[in-house]
Each structure stands twice: as structure tokens, then as C-alpha cells.
Amino acid sequence: MDDELSFWGWGYADRFPDDDERRELKSQVETLLGFPERALMDPPTIDDVTIPESRLTVPESLSGIVSTDTVDRVRHTYGRGYRDIVRGFHGEFDAAPDAVAEPETEGEIEDVLAWATAERVAVVPYGGGTSVVGGVECDPRGDGAAYSGVVSLSVRALDSVLEVDETSRTALIQAGATGPELNDQLAEYDLQLRHYPQSYEFSTLGGWIVTRAGGHFATRYTHIDDFVESVRMVTPSGSFETRRLPASGAGPDPNRLVLGSEGALGVVTEAWMRVQPRPPYRARASVKFREFDAAVAATRDIVQARLSPANCRLLDRNEAMLNEVAMDGSHVLVLGFESVDHPVDDALSRAIEITETHGGTVDDAPSSEGPHLSDEGDEGRDGTEGDWRSAFFEGPYKFDALVSMGVIVDTFETAVTWDQFPTLHAEIQSQVMDEMEDVCGAGFLSTRFTHVYPDGPAPYYTLLAPADVGRELEQWRDIKQVASDVIEEYGGTITHHHAVGRLHRDHYADESPAAFRRVLESAKSSLDPAGVMNPGVLLDADATGGER
Amino acid sequence: MDDELSFWGWGYADRFPDDDERRELKSQVETLLGFPERALMDPPTIDDVTIPESRLTVPESLSGIVSTDTVDRVRHTYGRGYRDIVRGFHGEFDAAPDAVAEPETEGEIEDVLAWATAERVAVVPYGGGTSVVGGVECDPRGDGAAYSGVVSLSVRALDSVLEVDETSRTALIQAGATGPELNDQLAEYDLQLRHYPQSYEFSTLGGWIVTRAGGHFATRYTHIDDFVESVRMVTPSGSFETRRLPASGAGPDPNRLVLGSEGALGVVTEAWMRVQPRPPYRARASVKFREFDAAVAATRDIVQARLSPANCRLLDRNEAMLNEVAMDGSHVLVLGFESVDHPVDDALSRAIEITETHGGTVDDAPSSEGPHLSDEGDEGRDGTEGDWRSAFFEGPYKFDALVSMGVIVDTFETAVTWDQFPTLHAEIQSQVMDEMEDVCGAGFLSTRFTHVYPDGPAPYYTLLAPADVGRELEQWRDIKQVASDVIEEYGGTITHHHAVGRLHRDHYADESPAAFRRVLESAKSSLDPAGVMNPGVLLDADATGGER
């Protein structure tokens, strides 16, 4: 049972922090953040959970692949956002799908979609189930209400690398493969995808594509969008398959309709992906700043110099402290360069030189021998980058432990142009902090840049606040609303890489061009005439068939 | 009259080669290519041209901006592909639009679209008029037949840089600005767009966006797609305006629907574009190869090493000869690096090292002082790059001169994965050469890579054949058909950066996913319910309203 996945929280069940670790965390929260005393609650067992009866009768022909088993349904109820963890922790699984389909072939997926279309069953494509925006939850009392049932369709059985083109450095990969699964198979060819979102261990290629995932890297080869050479999607009205091409100027790019479609148009089954050898050349350093504005200016200068660092992660002092990267009140810029072909020490030196003109001081000695952070297969974790890497992948387990002691913990992110960033950031700092104090009596907010562009950063915020257990979702909702409203008002996007799902649907409606939304609705009508595909993501369920 | 644009051919009328130049070219064609003796024909004068009566009566309210003047109509009849130049040269302007609109504001564009929608007038958005794929020609006897008239809508009056955000390095630019016009305005801020398609002097920002133009650079910052931060388009059903963002993961990217839309959805009026300072650091060299395969392998290794050259233009021996870059039978790889921030000599050295492992030898000495080719404002034109630059921008005038002596001259281009390139290239060489010999008795075919990607090159072909004057369009059509069929059969795309227009419509239909074409049709129905926007580009006119 060592590698059994948690049914209510992040990742592997046995990685949930034990009582000693949780007591230590509790004391940190109380002393370091000054939160009132927290009580440790025990995590649920699956026997504690009750869920509604399934509304569906599975036809004989699908009985081999569609199940109404309670445990299957529990395991496919929620994503892994704060709201999901809280409900899971309290054993509340009322939003469970009526059935879970686990097809092993594309033909079986087509069979499920045909049944769903005929019987008006909502279909929720499910990969790793790590959505933090309600992307895999179609509540039978909400978006799923107008349907005869909701089926969660897992693509996890489609987990193979089917073909590798070593000359073009591309691979045909099935959508259900997780990060480690696909990289293990590519290792045979000394190739890697090199896409490391925080959910890397559990999330799947298909999920990355439909949510436009952002990888770990700060610049250039980081968005899954840019790795997709071609894609295949099964829709209720047939197959949607693009041509394998390095580039094309023929009409609007059809891949870009699939990227970000969040399961509302069909089920992605496989894609030709651009892959890379492991980069043997690396160089890294971290630089401390006393002033956040100076650190921001240095970061902007580096990216506008087109130095293209693999890592260019600016942590404000709270974030540096939270991740135990710097406890002295410094803001820290973690820099890393890598190459498959040539040394990158000069690029690092030049980046450091730029930071120095803004008052930065190198923290740990620059190194060109250490392994790159978050590179699967690298063992070393020395220096600031190592601390950071460790925190990065362990973060979600700590997140669950915080939930278990009545702490509201959430992250939100955006992207904004450099000219608008200072105002947006100041408004977030003041309004979100004020709201946490109003609603919870205290709060903590930290910031990092996950990605940077010549025209703007992608700031990422982590918030912590002491919850009134029982009322925590209501409190969280108030805080989340303020954060989202500020982002919208001051020129950001509601999501840089967390996707829209159901959680960001209203703000997405405000942000996206009305004319484009009408196009999206008509695209959905064309590919999914019965409106059964993941109703309620991106668009209101009733705009896309849910109320028909 | 010095800067008057030619009504029938490329660019400025007075740049059409004089008789001496044309006689020299004629002798080259006859001796170097072995074509039968050619006769020089005189270019037409505008007085020779007769065009059909306009079918339209312009309403009083639009009389200030819509004209049925013959010269205006002649000047907006064709693009600048081979077929266009031949018809123009022979004074055939039967495809002339019934009227030309020259609005000066977005409001006036809305007025024209409202009239067109009400009166069922086809609207052809017109920028620089440099389409080589029939993108600006809606023949009243063809795609325009089902309409009460065709109006060509020029956006050339909207030619201003409206706003510059120096912090984010972005600028709000109107769609009708040509390359020199927008760069002249950006020069005030020491910024440039650095997008240099061959049509740079005459084509417009709006045209680049709707055709997904490729710039001069071989890698990275070259596609207009990547420069667009946000865009505004007037459609018959209202404005389509995206948010200014450096990046977003919120749903499918709305900018990507506009990019490549070729005027079929609306009229792009302005866009926030990512701009750059002039790069002071440059390094360049050219490398000769005896074997084409070795040159291809070297090019692939350079791009897969992610060296990101600004220029990485491989000319096969025919192309090198045609452009007078090398007359000794060598294939030539022209390499250039540039940076706004740091020296790029090391990158060039490394690239040269790679070419040497494939048997390449440096031709002109590497230089890090010379100006970069095709950089407006640089005067020097020394070395292979200088020769090449000169040929690049002069090429279209030579093209017209060839037409005037009965030579079929055309270019076609594609992109294909590296694994499929050798077969595609061999088939093009043999089938297109065979076809030229069958149809014209002789032919010449040369190749270059205009752009390169880690997963494949974008090969670009130039063909020359002796025409039977009077039958040349029929001959050309046969050759073009073979080239397009081979591209489709052997895994290429019908266009890497020339767009689809009307010329590539059938092959685009075969190449693009059927499901995506249905989406595109429904998008068009949503934004352009009367189907008046540029009917016949991308999709058949009758699929999008032309037959209603």
C-alpha cells in the first residue's frame, strides 16, 4: 500500500506528514506567523465517507469499462485545490460522479462518448485529477444537474510512448501518461520532455495540454503549448487530429483550439511532442536583494536582455522564508541556465552582472557543476536551488497538513505587463491582506515569479490564514473573490497556468472577449452537439447545452 | 512620381528594371539556364487597362470614403503572386473590385461593414496588397459572384503608432502601418519591431497578423504570432478585442483565432506588439558545403543545439548561384547571431564548429562588426550576407522583369519534420522538374531554408521555366498543382508563411482537420453572419455564406 494514492489529499497517502511533523508545522504557524492556537485534526479514512447513490445504470456493453463502485467514484470526485482538500478531509463527497469510466483504447472512449451523447450523460475527462480550479468536478447538484448522470472518464490506461522520431526529436505519447511514466519511456532514447509543473508526478500529458500547463522553467521552452507538434482528440462528433508539422501558416492554428479546451470539446488521446536530450551543461546561482523593487527591475532586465534562463524565480522575502530559502528578510532571485550543447557560465555571469547593477549580492557561490533543480534523475540538492526544489515538490503535502490544522492555504497566480505590475502587486498586497484580517483575524501572503516574459512577469501568490473550522470554505471564498477581483481590475489574467475550470469561470467571462466566447460556444456546438463534454468549465453549463 | 507604386507589379513603378538590365537578365536566362530565346515585352500603361463597370452604387453617407474610380479599383485588384503579375502585365483587370473603401477611422470601418452586411457586399480587407496567394482578390465572376458587389477595404490610412510602453517594451500600432512606417515611429523610442518579411517595405502590420507572417529571422523571434500581445478586430457583429497580457492560460488563446484569419472574420485595426531595441551585438559568417545532405545535417544540429541564430539560411547550390552568393557549385549556410545585451561571437564559433564536423568550410571570414542583414538603417552590405540581403529585397523586381520576358517564375514553401524532409525534397526535385520539362520543355529549381525549428525546416523553392506567352498561366497552374500535391503527400504544410488565400484553398482543405474546418465555419457564422468578409479565403465561399 506504500504507493497508494490518497483519496482525499495530495499524492501518496503515506506521504501525508506524520504527527511529529504536523506538530512542528503547527508551532511554526503559531509562532512564526502569529496565528492563534490551531488544533490538529485526524485525516479521514475511506470508510468514513458516504456518497449519494449513482443515478446511472451502465449498459451491458460498457460494463467492462464503466463502474459505479463507491471507491472509484470517491477517487474521481475532486481535484486538489483548497476547496477540494477541505471537503475531502471532512469526508464530504456529495459531488461524486455517478460512474467512472476507465477505457483502455480510443475505441472505448468513443463508445463512452456515444453512450453519453445518446443518454445525456455529462462526461468529465480525468487525467491525474490534480486540477486546482474545479476542472474535474461536475457536481450532480450543480453543473451536472441537467444531465441524467455524470461520468468521470479516466484516460490513465493510455500511458504509452507509442513512437519516437529521434531525427526530429519528437515522440508520439498517449494522453494518460504521467510525467514520470512518459520520461521513463523516453529515457530509452536518452530523451526527455522536460516539462515540470508542480503536479509533475501525478498529472498527465492530456491534462497539461487541455489546461495549457506551465512547466518549471522560467522562460522559453516551458509552456506545453510550444511542445505540441500535433494532437489527437476524440469528440462526440468524431476525431479531431492535426498534422505533424514543425510550423505552419495555414489558417488559425488548430492545435491552439485544443490547448486550453479543458475537456469541453473532447478527450485528448495522444500527441506528437517535441522532446529533448538531458542538458549536461548547467550553471546556477542565487542572488539576494534588500529591496523588492530592485529585484523586480533586475529580473526584468535579465529577461529583456533575452538571456533565457531556465530558472529565473524571484521569491519575495515572505516566500523565501516560507520555503526556508532565506530567513534574513532578503528577497531571493534563483537563476539557472542549461544547455544540451554548450557551457552556459557566460550567460549566468552576465545575468549576475545585471543583478549587481540593481544592488543584488550573490548568495551561494555560482556553480556550473550542480544538477539542475527539479530534474528527475538528479540526486543532488545542494544550495538554494536544492532547498527550493525540495520545497517545490513537497509543498502540496505541507498544504494538506495545514488544512488538517485549520489553516486556510491557497495559491493564486496571474500574468501582467511590467508597467502594470507594481500597481497590481500593491493592490493585491493590501486588499488581500485586509480581507484575510477582516475575515480570519490574521493572514500571511507571499509572492514569487514563476515565469517571466520580455513584456511582463507571472506573479504567483501563496496565502495562509487561520480558519474557523466549519466556516473555512466561506472564509476562503471571500478571500479568493477579493484576489480575483483585484487581478481583473488591475490588468492581470485570472490564470497564467492554473486554468479556468469552474472556479475561475466568472472572471474568465469578464476577461475574455465576448465575441470569442460566442465563437467558443459555437465550436462546442459543432464538436459536442449534445453539450455533454465537461459542462461548466470555461463557459456556463447552460450556455453550452446544460439546460437544453 | 518617383515613389509611385506600380499598378501591375511589385513595389515602386520606377524600380522596374530598365531595358539594359532586362537584356542582361534575358541573356543569363538563356545562357546560364539554357532556356530558349526569350522576347522582351513592354510593361503596360494604366491607359491600356479596361475593367468592367462597377456593380455598386455607393450610398451618399459613404461617398467620402468609398470610391468606384477606375484607377482605385485597378490598384486594388490583385496581390503580387505570379498569376497576379502576369494578368497585370497583360492589362487584364477583370477581377477588379466594384469599389474601394479608404476609411480613416475604426468607426468608418464599422460603417462600411454595416453597409456591406445590409447590402450583401463582399468585403476584402486590403493592407499592402502583397499577397501571393490570392488573399486580396475576390473575383466578381468567382468568389464574389453571389454578392451584389465587392468592395476592397484599405486600412492604409490607419498607420500610426498610438502608444508606447517602454517599460514592457510594447507598442500599440495601427494595422495599416507598413514596416518602414511603424519602425520610423518607433525609432523615436529607440525601439523596433524587427519583423522583416520580404514584403517589409509595402506590407502592413494587419496583413502580417492575419496571414501569420514569418519574419526574416531563422529562429525564435520571427513569427508575428509571437509578437502579438493583444489585438483588436472589427467584425460585422461587433468588436473583438483581446486583453493586453504577456501570457495567459485562460482557455484557448483568442489571439490565435485572429492570427491566420485572413480577413474572413473581420478587419484587424490595431495591436499591442512586443518591440525591441536595436541589437548592437552581431556576429556572422557563411559556410560552404559540397554535399547538400551534410549541410542539412549541420543546420539541424545547430537548431537542435538551441543556438538560436537570427539567421540560419541554407541555400542549395542553385539558390546560391541564382542569388550570386556562390558560383562554384557550393551549398551555402549563412549564419548570423545578434543580441541587444551581450556579444554573440561564442555562439557563432560554436555554430561554425558544428558545421565543420559536417565538412563545412567557412567562406567569408566570420565578423562581429558588420551590420546585420535586412536591418533597416544599416548601410553596409559587405560579404555574403550583404549580397544576400540585396538579392532578398530586390528579388521581387527581378521577378517582374522575368515575367516581362516570358519566364514563369514562382516560389512555393512548406515546413516538414526532419525525418520526412529528405523524401519530400527528393520528390519535389524530381516531380516538379519533370513537370516543368513536360509542360515548358525546361526548368530550373532552387531551394533554401527560410526558417528552421528543432523538429524540422521550412524549405522554400524558387522555380523558373520558359513560358509560351499566352498559355503561361495554364502552364504555371500545372506546375503549381504538382508542387502542392507533392507537399501534401509527403507530410508538408501547404504554407509556412505565404498563407492560404484562394490559391491554396483546396490543399488547405485536405490538410486541415475536418472538425476544425467546421469550427472555423461556425466561428465565421458567429462573427460574420452574412458571410461578407473576404469570401473564398481559407474556406469555399459557398461554405460560409456565399451561396445563401
Please explain how this structure is put together:
With 548 residues, chain A is of the alpha+beta class. Among the domains of chain A are: 13-154, Uridine Diphospho-n-acetylenolpyruvylglucosamine Reductase, domain 2 (2-Layer Sandwich), CATH 3.30.43.10; 280-371, Alpha-Beta Plaits, CATH 3.30.70. The first copy, chain A, has helices at residues 19-31, 70-75, 82-89, 106-119, 179-187, 205-211, 224-227, 255-258, 292-304, 317-322, 345-357, 383-403, 421-440, 472-489, 505-511, 514-527, and strands spanning 66-67, 99-101, 121-126, 149-154, 161-165, 170-174, 228-235, 238-241, 267-274, 281-289, 311-315, 331-339, 361-362, 407-413, 444-453, 456-466. The first copy, chain A, has a five-stranded antiparallel beta sheet with strand order 5-6-9-7-8. In chain A, a hairpin with a 2-residue loop joins strand 15 (444-453) and strand 16. The longest helix of chain A has 21 residues, at 383-403. The radius of gyration of chain A is 23 Å and the shape is globular. The two termini of chain A are 45 Å apart. Residues 369-382 of chain A have low confidence and may be disordered. Chains A and B meet through strand 8, helix 8, helix 11, strand 16 and helix 16 of A and strand 8, helix 8, helix 11, strand 16 and helix 16 of B.
CATH class of the domain at 13-154 in chain A: Alpha Beta
Largest sheet entry of chain A: 5 strands, antiparallel
Mean pLDDT of chain A: 93
Report the portion of residues of chain A in β strands: 15-25%
**Structural class category of chain A:** alpha+beta
